[in-house]
Specification:
This protein is mainly alpha-helical. Helices cover about 45% and strands about 5% of the residues. The chain has two domains: about 60 residues, no CATH class; about 35 residues, no CATH class.
């Protein structure tokens, strides 16, 4: 289901004008930054949707939050599109910009200095 929606969104993005694509990129960047700056009070457990969470240390400068209800641990970016990415946020934003500009995978890989197989994922 998620993959189908993703490709539908990409097809719709291709129909936008260049100025609309740039505005979309700015809006996405703002959303990513806002979600990265959430305070604990605004966070909910992505597993059980409960608000009973606490801070529980850091892993490589990423704050971890255990849920008091389901006992599962998560970070702010859990379930976000960039959650499992090992690339930094700036690289992800540049990647989205390349997709909006309809670059080929080889051109994206060259622009971001990554392997073509990484650009494909």
């Amino acid at each position: 289901m998620y993959v189908d929606n993703y490709f539908k969104i990409l097809e719709n993005i291709k129909l936008l004008s260049n100025s609309a694509k740039r505005k979309l990129l700015i809006d996405i960047s703002i959303l990513i930054n806002v979600s990265n700056n959430k305070e604990t009070a605004e966070l909910i457990c992505p597993h059980c949707k409960n608000k009973c969470i606490v801070k529980n240390g850091r892993n490589k400068e990423t704050q971890r939050y255990p849920c008091k209800t389901c006992k599962k641990s998560f970070v702010k970016s859990t379930n976000a599109p960039i959650f499992s990415s090992k690339k930094n946020l700036e690289t992800c934003i540049k990647f989205i910009e390349c997709l909006i500009n309809q670059y080929s995978l080889s051109k994206i890989a060259k622009e971001l200095n990554i392997a073509v197989s990484t650009a494909f994922i």
